Amino acid sequence: RAQTMEACKAFFERCETGQGWSACQEFCTPDASFEAQSEPLADVKTLEAYCDWMKGLATSTMPGCRYDLHHSSWDEGNKSACFFATFHGTHTGEGGPVPPTNKSIASHYVYAITVDGSGKISKMIKIWNAPWALKQVGW
Questions:
Q1: Do residues 13 and 27 make contact, with C-beta atoms less than 8 angstroms apart?
Q2: Terminus-to-terminus CA distance in the chain, angstroms?
Q3: N or C terminus: fewer CB in 10 A for the chain?
Q4: What CA–CA distance (Å, rounded) separates 88 from 65?
Q5: CB-based burial, 76-98: b 16+ in 10 Å, e otherwise
Q6: Which residues fall within 8 angstroms of residue 118, CB to CB, at 6 or more apart?
Q7: What distance in Å separates the CA atoms of residue 132 and residue 129, rounded to the nearest whole number?
């Protein structure tokens, strides 16, 4: 149990620091799914695609972005982990829907992660108020 939670936390840290799928895949099933009821991510269906989306955001669109982790928990009965954090970044690079705005964002979000019987991440849902966040950054 603790080992699985540590793997989920390592995944979270690698994903949120923009290391991409190549750094995150060891913690996941090859076909791990992704869901978000947030406009910028509505068409992203795999965890691989999400990890690489975050890599683009962290290395190009908002270089130097960071997160503050407020809460993490493990639910043994549901084989799931949750992480509540705040994302901080400034749109200084290419890759957004408009040229760099130099505006900053502080946006709350939650990762709800489900693991399979082998302890690998099989599904992640991101809970994120995208309209609020995108307004902050001038998109």
A1: no
A2: 41
A3: N
A4: 6
A5: eeebbbbbbbebebbbbbeebee
A6: none
A7: 6
